[in-house]
Amino acid sequence: MGVVNTAGVRAEAEIRARADGRGGTALPVLEGRGPLAVRRTRGSGATAHVTLVGAMSGPHGGDHFTLRADVGAGARLRVGSAAATLALPGQHGGRARQTVRITVAAGGELHWLPEPLISVTGSELAVRTRVDLELGARLVLREELVLGRTGEEPGRLTSRLTVRVDGRPVLDQELDCGAGAPGGWDGPAVLGGHRAVGQLVVCDPEFADKPVEPDASADGAAVLPLAGPAVLVSAVAPDALRLRRLLDRAPVSFAPASVSSGAASA
């Protein structure tokens, strides 16, 4: 599932989670090779835990990584990563791509909580994440982007996130920032000079009866209810550590006990 050629590395990883009929979650498919290694780690209760491990550095320019996660009815899955991901310049140049495809069936639950993605000077990466949920599915998805390591300018980073519930779009937004991005990305209407930006998407059927109120009172964070029912928490911060703290403090009923996974650092 990992192929190297002159245009870069093509690699895929796939996770399938299914209810095991005994109150737990089985992983009938857990595959990844090359740069994308996936490992089952110790879980808790009915939730299966999977960790993405960077077996190689990257993505580099020209690479294309694809991750797929499919959660069946009654299954509960939590996916994290062992460390932050570095988007790096490639030997052959060009844009790297990272594609994430997520599906969750009614009654299934997924916590997608990777560590931050860091855009290194000279890199160019396009991230495309698409989530398809059936009615009755539950989701916690966190995305954290850091523009440059300490003391360096970022590369080019484009991230598009689309979430659909029952085939209807709930969220479809794109952020394009860093070297070569259209003007204004670093202005007050977007990042306002910050170098870490993130979002937390929470989908929970209970929000239909207990809607979350909009909230922009937190310094650097805002809560926006979505159709679905779902909630989007967006935040900007000077660094990854403060960004994680903002997202962890989000006033979303389904999020706090599920999301926190330690402090991030970059």
Automatic annotation (TrEMBL):
Keyword line: Chaperone, Cytoplasm, Nickel insertion
HAMAP family per UniProt: UreD
Localization (cell): Cytoplasm
Pfam families: UreD
GO molecular function per UniProt: nickel cation binding
Organism expressing this protein natively: Streptomyces gancidicus BKS 13-15
A cellular component annotation (GO) from this entry: cytoplasm
Gene this protein is translated from: ureD
Stated role: Required for maturation of urease via the functional incorporation of the urease nickel metallocenter.
Keyword Metal-binding carried by entry: no
Highest taxon of the lineage: Bacteria
Family classification: Belongs to the UreD family.
Descriptive protein name: Urease accessory protein UreD
Complex and partners: UreD, UreF and UreG form a complex that acts as a GTP-hydrolysis-dependent molecular chaperone, activating the urease apoprotein by helping to assemble the nickel containing metallocenter of UreC. The UreE protein probably delivers the nickel.
Predominant location category: cytoplasm
